[in-house]
């Protein structure tokens, strides 16, 4: 037998309630253990090598990718979430590789054009079971990546899949089976899953300020009315008398990320100490999540999020983008569902397979899978190919 030094080293640093190769519920399709990696490293690596992960680069977070090279995309957002999650996992002796795997895959199911895309596709799918990006992320890793010889999807570990499924209705949970059982039983996911969820919140609350300021959608002076921002602004101004705006913004935001992460670690550590779970099941059976911000920090974050909702996500320029995105995706959905012959062969084949399984609902699901998988720019090009009469040459119709 080969020495498994990596696994041993890793195990030594883990808390008794962390996920590990020893308490995992494993993979749906049994596989040999990796030789020099732990099981969650393998998951992380599979996610990075997936097509859905590469597409994140051209999917909108808040701003459409081609609006500027410096804005966050789903890819850079996911990397920031992973970085924050790893720091927290390491400090609390949780499984860093699992936290990273969940972070890198948590947004794989997002449609093009951010939340506007999700709203459009959900509306289109109303009669066919709806569309929810979180469940779509799970669908991507469970079914839609089709490059392994032995199974569909990436055959990820239970705990990675559980972490990807952040929310779920009871109705959907009954269909999804064991990975969603906690939404029926009212139990908790692993601490790694819990911490990624809060790392996600930490990442976007802060990088959306940065992007919003850069794009001129939010005003620096307005932000000074937000305590979380103001507190760090005061510290930066105290420390540096002459500093340009760009450095000032970065210094404030990096301190904001830091105070949120420190609060999250301190509060969660206290929660864990008080609850004293003796195993992973001890974490799962808690009445509420052990990972949390303090009450004070929760109130500060809420104030910031309300500010962002009002000033950034509801900005008329964001609405204009959302309007177009809604129209593009709705038009594509209607065109495909009314005539599946215009779908590229692979997508059409998938629709026919799903039709065999569940009729019209299957066809709709196949169309939704195809659209959800598109990047922003692919959706725009596909829309042009189908609806722009000037593109009536055969060459332009080739995908
Ligand atoms: Mg996210």
CATH homologous superfamily name of the largest domain?
Hypothetical protein af1432
- Tell me the number of structural domains: 2
Rg over CA atoms:
22 Å
Largest sheet: none
CATH topology of the largest domain: Hypothetical protein af1432
> What is the helix fraction of residues, given as a range?
55-70%
Give me the secondary-structure category. mainly alpha
Number of helices: 20
Quick one: CATH class of the largest domain? Mainly Alpha
In the CATH hierarchy, the architecture of the largest domain is Orthogonal Bundle
Q: Give the number of DSSP strands.
A: 0
The amount of beta strand, in percent, is: under 5%
* Distance between the ends: 49 Å
**Mean pLDDT, all residues:** 92
* Bound ligands, each once: magnesium ion
